[in-house]
Amino acid sequence: RILSMQGRKIWKVSIFFLTCAMCNCTEWAVVPLLDSHQPRHFPFKIWMPLNPAKSLDYGIGYTYQMSTVYTSPMLYIAIDFITLSTISFASGQIKIIVHKLREIKSIPFSDSLNIVASQELIRNNNKILNDCICQHQAVIGFVKLVEHMFNVNIFFQMSGTVAIICIIGLSITSETPNTFHFYSSLNYLVFMLAQLYMYCWCGNELTAKSEMLRDELYMCPWYEQDIRFKKTLYIAMEAMKRPIVFRAGFYIPLSRPTFVSILRCSYSYFAVLNQASNK
Description:
Layout lengths: L1 H33 L20 H47 L13 H60 L5 H40 L7 H13 L7 E2 L3 E2 L2 H23 L1
Antiparallel strand pairs: 1-2
């Protein structure tokens, strides 16, 4: 149930991303069709051996450009969906560990519980703790594997977002408000910010949930368990001092402070470029 909830959450986010991307591509596709003040032109200014003044050439070039543009966001969103799903899956596994830890039962010191039943409870509690530790180590290994696969892609995406925000910001300041180009650029800016925030949010959720594990361990009735349980608990709590952090480029942690830092950096570059362009 926990993993299905995480999956539905990421699915809704991916649908939102895909909708924003398709809307933005549609805006780019409609602009040259509605622009009657200029000669017929393609949506994007790239060289093609076609004459836009001819209907057949224009249809071929228009179809080629828009099919490429519509395909690109689908590929990027597919990669984002895989990456966010794997990070969210790791967060879901941490939630499962927390749920298991809460199943550790208390062992009452009373004559009503015979020795056999008490030993069975102790044995079961030790098994639950060992299973949680093994699962936690598996989650760490899984996160390292995912980080090794996608860290370069996320790093360049986050670095490129800084430049994109600056360029779009300059474009918006030069555009006339309440125009199609203005809202198209604004929509693209919102999409890029949402994409960046989702990466940072998923990474922050993973780190926050892993930090909760030590508190959950301490909240279990460890004081009623045997010596073996207490020793294992102590080692586990020491091992869980370091939270699980997903890093882009093995350097930048995906977290909410990182998102704020990127926005500040983008705004600083934007302010410098805007001041230079106004001179």
